[in-house]
């Protein structure tokens, strides 16, 4: 069985902290193509991604089926699916999604494979 490296996740208070966290992760060796930002509001996610020069979780990470299924899911279900697609458990995804409900931002980084 292949060993997998767990993704790094950090919940931050706002977009400014998310941008700072992305910069810190880049400085410590994470590839910018493997640093993702997620907020409860899609527009907010896009603004932070653009400002931080990070990535959105998309079809490449989720797979085609989940990406299409997200079109029909509630935003909470979609967020949990995206978080799980990066290697987190359902219970971890539930925790992070609740933090996003409170207006916080999630920054996730994966080591390049």
From TrEMBL:
<dbReference type="InterPro" id="IPR025889">
    <property type="entry name" value="GSP17M-like_dom"/>
</dbReference>
<protein>
    <recommendedName>
        <fullName>General stress protein 17M-like domain-containing protein</fullName>
    </recommendedName>
</protein>
<feature type="domain" description="General stress protein 17M-like">
    <location>
        <begin position="9"/>
        <end position="103"/>
    </location>
</feature>
<dbReference type="Pfam" id="PF11181">
    <property type="entry name" value="YflT"/>
</dbReference>
């Amino acid at each position: 069985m292949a060993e997998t490296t767990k993704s790094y996740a950090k919940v931050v208070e706002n977009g400014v902290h998310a941008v700072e966290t992305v910069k810190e992760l880049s400085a410590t060796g994470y590839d910018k193509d493997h640093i993702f930002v997620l907020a409860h509001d899609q527009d907010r996610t896009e603004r932070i991604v653009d400002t931080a020069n990070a990535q959105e979780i998309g079809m490449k990470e989720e797979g085609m089926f989940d990406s299409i299924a997200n079109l029909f899911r509630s935003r909470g279900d979609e967020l949990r699916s995206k978080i799980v697609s990066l290697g987190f458990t359902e219970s971890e995804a539930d925790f992070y999604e609740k933090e996003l409900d409170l207006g916080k931002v999630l920054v996730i980084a994966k080591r390049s494979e």
